[in-house]
Amino acid sequence: MASLFESGWLYLINNFSDFQLASLGSFIIHEGVFFLSGLPYLMMECWGLQKYKIQRKMNTPAAQEKCVLWLLLYHSCVNLPLMVVSYPVFKYMGFTSQLPLPSWKVMSFQILSYFILEDFIFYWGHRFLHTKWLYKHVHSVHHEYATPFGLTSEYAHPLEILFLGFATIFGPAITGPHLLTLWIWMSVRVLETVEAHCGYDFPWSLSRVLPIYGGADFHDYHHRLLYTKSGNYSSTFTYMDWIFGTDKGYRKLKALKSDQYHTDSIRPEVNTTLVKAE
């Protein structure tokens, strides 16, 4: 299997240049992962599926269509040029696509490092975007969707795409990784942000297994509040919000819901006991 994958990789590097693979190849992979992972949530919106939906409200077909059309424009006019102009920096820092392929241990360590670094930069950048002037003129575009669905994860003002896109590429840019590492990192990061905006809290969601992972419920809270009181600024993990106290409102709401759940689950037993006693 490994040799078959290496043969396929050898075909790529023999028929396409590093520039083509790093720019156009990365763009194609990004678009494929983004739309293939985001469209199922859009279909759930269209079908009106309510089970596991965090908010009951659904976006109108017009709002859904607007999101998709603007995304195609943003990706073509902002994301693709950003990938093209980033290539010289990656190349200067030691980027390569040649064999041998990096080991899984090396890739796993690098990708975990990218997640930690991206989360730190994203937190402060996102929090800065929630200041009055920047929210009004830039970040409010992203918050047009108070009830997010997967594809809204990248619906944003072009300046925000550049600003927060910087957080995603900063780690790879300063380390000059192998192209395979870059593609895996980009794919995992896209899957994470789509899931965080999906609007559904499933029993199998990663946030139910990994306590420090934010996920859809964590980020959905951020979208449905006023910008001055939102909190929950992190992208992937929750520890930055916990350290700086910007998740207090969310944790308070979760505690209230938990208390209400336990109260509702206990009350029927009390009533049943009283009936039997009579």
Automatic annotation (TrEMBL):
Keyword line: Membrane, Transmembrane, Transmembrane helix
Protein name listed in UniProt: Fatty acid hydroxylase domain-containing protein
Organism (species): Sphagnum troendelagicum
Transmembrane segments annotated in the record for this chain: 20-47, 68-87, 161-186
Limits of the Fatty acid hydroxylase domain: 112-246
Principal cellular location given in the protein's record: membrane
Intracellular or extracellular location(s): Membrane
Family according to the record: Belongs to the sterol desaturase family.
UniProt cross-references to PANTHER family, sorted A to Z: STEROL DESATURASE
Any Pfam family: FA_hydroxylase
